[in-house]
Amino acid sequence: MNNRINLPNGSLGLSGKEILLELQVYGFSDRVKHIDGKIDETVEYNKRGTDLSNISVKLNGSRDHSSFYSTLTNSSPSSCSYGGFWFLGLTGLQNLGNTCFMNSAIQCLTHTPKLVDYFLGDYRRDINRENLLGMKGELSMAFGNLLRKLWTPGARAVAPRMFKLKLANFAPQFSGYNQHDAQEFLAFLLDGLHEDLNRVKSKPYIEFKDAEDRPDKEVAEEYWRNHRACNDSVIVDLCQGQYRSTLVCPVCNKKSVTFDPFMYLSLPLPSTSMRTMTLTLLSADGSTLPSPITITVPKCGRLKDLLEALSTVCSLRSDERLLVAEVYKNKIFRFLEEPSDSLALIRDDDTLVAYRLPKSDEVSSLVVFMHQRLEKAYNFEKVPANWKLFGIPLVARISGLLTGFDLRRQFLGLLHPFLMPADDVLSNCEDARITANGDSAMEDVIRPIISDSNTGSDGKTEDVHLGSESNTGSDSKTEDLRLGADFQFYLEHIYGEREINMRGQLRVPISNNRLNVHVLWSEKMIERYDTCLLTSLPEVFKPQLCIRRPQECASLYKCLEAFLKEEPLGPEDMWYCPNCKKHRQASKKLDLWRLPEILVVHLKRFSYSRYIKNKLETYVDFPTDDLDLSTYISHTNAQSSNPYVLYAISNHYGGMGGGHYTAFVDHGHGKWYEFDDANVFPVSEDRIKSSAAYVLFYKRVA
């Protein structure tokens, strides 16, 4: 006899002593007697050759009873047997063609203790054929028949063809032989079984009441009673819990509290809860070169999170502020100024620039300098040259009345870090000469920049040149550069670009305190300045497909904390605020309120974007014997302090396209088995923790 059977002390040493072992088997009227390890041949098993799929083993909700054993004269050689004894429930599932995802999830469910008891019993009495949301009992009967075959004594590997056929009839996405996600299949199966076995034949109409500042305990009980009034099945009894969802309007702080049921917890991994972003930092005083800065922010965070991370990394002073802009095609596409804006609006292929500006209480104008260079046509001589934007726009703030000279001086100051080394000395000497000689020297610097069109016959200048369009064409700009101008400044106007007079004041209205200035570069200036640095602008995030990163590690508790962390809703999930009467991007906070007896934990390993699909190989350290969630439950009750033990794992190996699913199952007494489609074999407990763990199944300890 196996030493795991608790026999009376000294009973094996008593010769001729009859030891009676009772085996409760559904459908049998006789007891199976073992006398000194020998089977009483007078008991027949419903005649040999009879289909044993109707046999139901009473497990009484305990995994310890699921590994009972016996010997059968007609046991199959392929059954899982050791030393003349075989174990129930160690039957594999044949792969019908990319159905490993289905086999893995089914093995985990068919080893869920009380669920096995239920389907090995008279579950058909609960089938609801009238439920419009159900499947007229066909899915539950197909699953029940499959489970009974898996628990048949001495069964060979089962081909789940009939179950897959019924599944495809109601869920076309699982038809065919394509690979699918095991968690998506599991979610559909649990929901389908619930609707098929819902004991509520006629669902009552229930009108939910507002919380109205009532205690959370009272409101939660009301929500749960209303939920159970419409949903009463073995799936709800075992697998459904309740969490508290709190929404807060970012404008009026209106709070909305609801209590919703859940079937499983989908926990983000650390790599999915946080996001790495790269921005280019530029100073507004020309003191430093642009530098890329990489920060880590919450994936569902707001702009204020990004600004706080940037301020810390660049050691922002108290008299400075950051202005973040998105640059597209060498122009500022938009400024990111609203702190409550979601970071989900920023894509990985966007290019962001953070301008380091001084704080100023007085009214100041934001000046944006955009660079243009002459693009020559080499193939067609008759095609005129075009001016093309290049480089990163430079930004500065100028207070008071603006003149063309103010703009030029500010622009040259911003360009100073880009000077090539050979020109640094000349630049310093030129600055010293200007300072020593005063205005006369300054006029010498300005004069080459002034176009003839800006001066009258008497030598006086106009405020802003608003001449004919011919003066703004490419021919006019090219002619100015031929006259020796190093930079030419043009003001972006509603009627087009207008050349700026260097000495006159700018009286053109500035919209939104922003002035856009186009700067034309001569070939001489392009050679003098390092335009390579000026044009270097990295994307927010560029995945390195060829670089293998070190494996990340995280605990299951850290994943749970990331799941329960407050975060803003996405732009596609705006909440309608009853106070504001508008859709708002509210912040959402989840709290665990009521935990189920069977806790299913889904680790979100797969991430999707517009251009790439990725699987995270993060190693999650999860407890196997003592999962304590008491500190994460907002509502304490008699069962909140009870720990959970792990009894099954659905694993995914490989990548997105060519992966494979298996399952680990605890068959009692710490004996783990691996279910790899039709193959079932024991596995050591130290192997069950790996980066392949995808869905975890826990049972609450009474």
From TrEMBL:
Lineage of the organism: Eukaryota, Viridiplantae, Streptophyta, Embryophyta, Tracheophyta
SUPFAM superfamilies in alphabetical order: Cysteine proteinases (SSF54001)
Domain of life assignment: Eukaryota
Entry annotated with the keyword Ribosomal protein: no
Residue ranges of domain USP in the record: 91-701
EC code: 3.4.19.12
Protein name: Ubiquitin carboxyl-terminal hydrolase
Function: Recognizes and hydrolyzes the peptide bond at the C-terminal Gly of ubiquitin. Involved in the processing of poly-ubiquitin precursors as well as that of ubiquitinated proteins.
Keyword Hydrolase listed: yes
The protein's enzyme class: hydrolase
GO biological process: protein deubiquitination; proteolysis
Reaction catalyzed: Thiol-dependent hydrolysis of ester, thioester, amide, peptide and isopeptide bonds formed by the C-terminal Gly of ubiquitin (a 76-residue protein attached to proteins as an intracellular targeting signal)
GO molecular function: cysteine-type deubiquitinase activity
Organism from which the protein derives: Rhizophora mucronata (Asiatic mangrove)
